[in-house]
Specification:
With 249 residues, the chain is α/β, with parallel strands linked by helices. It has helices at 19-25, 35-47, 80-91, 125-137, 165-168, 183-201, 236-248; strands spanning 27-31, 51-55, 96-100, 117-120, 142-148, 151-157, 211-216, 221-226. It has 7 helices and 8 strands; from the N terminus they run H-E-H-E-H-E-E-H-E-E-H-H-E-E-H. It holds the Pfam family ThiF.
Length: 249
Amino acid sequence: MDIQRYNRQEKLKYLQGSGQKKLFAASILLVGAGGLGCSVLQGLAGAGIGRIGIMDHDRITLNNLNRQFLYTPADIGRWKTEVAAAWLARFSPGIQSEVYTYRLTRANADLAEEFDLVIAAVDNLETRLLLNEACVRRNIPLIDGGINGWGGCLFYVKQAGGPCLACLYPQAMENDREPAAFGTMAGMIGMAQAQMAVLALTGHTEGFEGKYIWFDGVNMEFHHTIIQPQSGCVVCGGHAQKQAGNESN
């Protein structure tokens, strides 16, 4: 890494001293290289995250281009992972990138163990909940984000503790309708996920446990609700009980 590239942010609280070095040494798995993922990747690269894995199984289409700002019409038909990794190599050659051009499943979820933190930037709840389960059971922090129309949300699932995304959506039903998506919302929530990642990697997530954050893009307002851990949660509830049982043995 070229240290001079980051000398403006090294003056900041949380990054002074060892903070920036923690980012250089950190690894993040980004699941989803669409609207959210493009902005997340830009934020992580700008911060100087040392190693970034990019997972996505889709090719670029014309209707992606209103919000997926890494891609151009010339990229239509190419794999998103391929184009995103090429952009990253041009933008910051010192960052190690890894490409996973396939869909996340339970069979390959062990990949999360190879990273310090995971970011969910996908547009379907099924994958988000699968990723949540994979991270909770492996004690890996997760940053989830989503957009819908003129709004977007952010939720941090901390390492080894609830509440988790399944507490937020205890009886979630997948919606077959493709969500409406505006480019600025993808940019704002994606960058917020990247900011949350920096705070998590430098150990400054006090007050974010259980905080579901919603941005209203029409009134330009942030709101939040505190989500309580659900004792009957099939993901973090059972995992917590199992962990406690192991510690008492």
